[in-house]
Amino acid sequence: MTDITSTFFIPLPKTAISENPSKFGIKILDPLSITSIGDMAVIETKRLSREQIVSMRRDFTRKILQKMVDAYKKGRIPVKRIVDEFRINEKYGLESNWYRVVFSADRFIDEYYKKMASGRFISSDGMPFEALMGLYPAAVMDFIDLIDLGEGFPKIGGSVLSPLEYRLVSLCGGRLRLSAVLDKCFDEFGQNYPSKNDFVKSAVRLIKSFEQNLWIGFSAVPRQAEDTKSVILNFSNTEYTNIEYVNPAQTSERAVIEMSAGAGINELRPAVENLIINGAKIVTGRIASGLSEADAAAVIKTADTALTLISEYPGIFEAYYDDGYLRNAVFNGGAQYEEHAAAAQTIDSKIAGRMLKVHNSKSIKFETALAHFRLHEQHGIDTIFYGRIFSPDPLIYNYFTIISRGAAQRTADTGIAGGAGPQKFERSSFRPQRVMAVWMALDFERGYPAVGRDVLSPLEYELLLYCTGKSTLGEIYDIMFAKFARSFAGFDELKRAVDKILSGFEKKYWILYSRI
Prior knowledge:
By secondary structure, the protein is mainly α. Among the domains are: 120-223, no CATH class; 254-364, Transcription Regulator spoIIAA, CATH 3.30.750; 411-514, no CATH class. It has helices spanning 16-19, 50-73, 79-92, 97-103, 107-118, 129-133, 143-146, 163-170, 178-189, 196-212, 225-228, 265-277, 293-312, 334-360, 366-379, 384-390, 394-404, 438-441, 458-466, 473-484, 491-507, and strands spanning 26-28, 43-45, 136-139, 155-156, 159-160, 216-219, 231-234, 254-259, 282-287, 317-321, 329-332, 431-434, 442-443, 450-451, 454-455, 511-514. The chain has a 3-stranded parallel beta sheet. The protein has a 3-stranded antiparallel beta sheet with strand order 13-14-15. Strands 1-2 form a two-stranded antiparallel sheet. A hairpin with a 6-residue loop joins β13 (442-443) and β14. α8 crosses α10, α19 (458-466) crosses α21 (491-507) and α20 (473-484) crosses α21 (491-507). The protein starts with 15 loop residues before the first helix and ends with a strand.
């Protein structure tokens, strides 16, 4: 299976094309690639500017990736090839564009084919009816993650489930043969069909469509209770056992507190304050629930308290609803499960929404955000902010990952421009470096350079190009003065303008500084 990518052409030194570029129809704009780290064109042709070449690469890449997605959706990729991609990733850690863009980016594709690659699932395509009846249909993920009950009716993705579809998929726990699943459903829905044979034909079509949608897969053997940590939940009381909670390695910089159902702000705020005073940089609240109606009401109160604390301690306090008791279980009573699952999904959505709101309001301090990344880098702890809020944002992720690994610094930590660094250095000795690939970030489609909604002036554009970590600020000042001297009263005025622009870049998480 072909995996197509692209790169910018960079002439090698002391070659025929670099010695005599006009003979090959090109002009080398940046012979030393000072403005490129492999993310910007350094040549132009008679017909194409470097900006047009960048735009062409963007368009080419988008079209190729879209063709790949279309090929998958049209069923043109053999199942074996997809399974091989997952096996290669599992064994060697390699990611092709097929794996990264088309397959693993979709949670249903990812979950289904991981299980296919491990041998847990087998394809039912072309399987005789009797053999199919002997297989064990299993959902690709826990029902709490698969079925959305938050709007009062069951959905998977954008598909609303009929009562029969919902019952069928809810029985796909990997513990019953397909024949047993159909028997159970026939007892409930059979009266709507002329015969059991008619019902079975209709139900099998639905089950097969579930497999095609990658909602379920088939296994030749049943899932074992001891393997899945299954537990029978009795909704008539609040006792449940054999649920394992795995806590990551702890560090004094991060504290986890239990937020019992019904706990209010007057109880929890002092606890959070005390942990912060004693050195905790991140406080994670685990909201736990029992199974009674009283607990369901109490946990909502506690969730509201968590929302308040998330706002009061931006980035420091985070929370999650522990829905472990709803996972890997065989349930006695669908209606009560639905009620608790819907509440869990609603609470989870509200908490994630409040954390995202805090992030978007820019109220999280730099030191707090960095603490989340250092917990990941130094202790292997993925906080909720790190996993759900920061990591999905490429600029935030790149910026703080680079700093947490010690590869670069922000201005305030360098000892320049009034910074608080341990040593004082001349500002001109530092090297600004961008944290994005400009060919992906820059958009020239409207006739001028833009990064998202930010339209760049000629000076801003040139500055961003030279932020590669290859030139010192002193060198960049000289280069910009040579290009834009006419627009300024003198060198000092240009230098102030450059410093102001770079400060703006830094606030947007576009650049960092290094001394090497």
